Amino acid sequence: MLPAGEHVRDVYMHQGGIIDAVKATKPLLIDCSTIDVDSARTVTAEAEKAGLSMLDAPVSGGTVGAQNGTLTFMVGGTDDAFARGKPILEAMGKNIFHAGGPGAGQAVKICNNMMLAINMVGVAEGFILAEKLGLDWGKLHAICSTATSNSWALANYCPAPGTVPTAPSARDYAPGFMAALMVKDVKLSQAAADATGSPTPLAAKALSFYQQVVDAGDGAKDFSVVFRWLAQQPR
Questions:
Q1: Residue 26 known to be catalytic
Q2: 6: helix, coil or strand?
Q3: Which of 94, 109, 205, 221 is an active site residue?
Q4: Among 3.90.650.10, 3.40.1160.10, 3.40.50.720, 3.20.20.70, what is the CATH number of 5-102?
Q5: What is the C-alpha separation between 221 and 205, in angstroms, rounded?
Q6: pLDDT 10s digits, 179-233
Q7: Model pTM?
Q8: Dihedral sign for Cα atoms in the order 170, 115, 70, 151
């Protein structure tokens, strides 16, 4: 996994890079970075010119999913490449989805993390309001986990300390998935939204919140630390 599209393009496409190094043996290339869709498609096209097959296969599930082998892989590539790569990915993850052609895995990951970023802000706001109204967080969590506001961010990753023993909020927001990485991923979603003319006002607002979390020095904390930042803001 590499940080950004420019790094993936360089490592694969640079003279003497991965594509040059392996084109004689023709292995299947699998890249699990979370990057922009255009970079994924560009690298795959270059690999195919060299007679290679490639998958973009970003993951979801964080460090806990990696440790437990329960990651979700969102895979872009041809049907043949996916058939070759699926057994490899099944050794590392639990849910392996073929999202479509080259770049589709990245597209799903960008949409997923954009929705997660927005969802976490909503959960955080709900628990902050609940405290002001005199509600017990544990009771709110138990009720809402069975009600229409339920989500993964609420049930499994609740940002309010003391509600979910395995969530980052129970260990001073140790990641997890760092807030700085959430900023990177939501920026990818906003670049894609600009390119396609898609309205994403909530994502834009959520991005501003996570950016302020990072600017305040909590970029290495789990992204759910946005709860603590929001709780300190005026009405």
A1: no
A2: helix
A3: 109
A4: 3.40.50.720
A5: 20
A6: 999 999 999 999 999 999 999 999 999 999 999 999 999 999 999 999 999 999 9
A7: 0.93
A8: positive
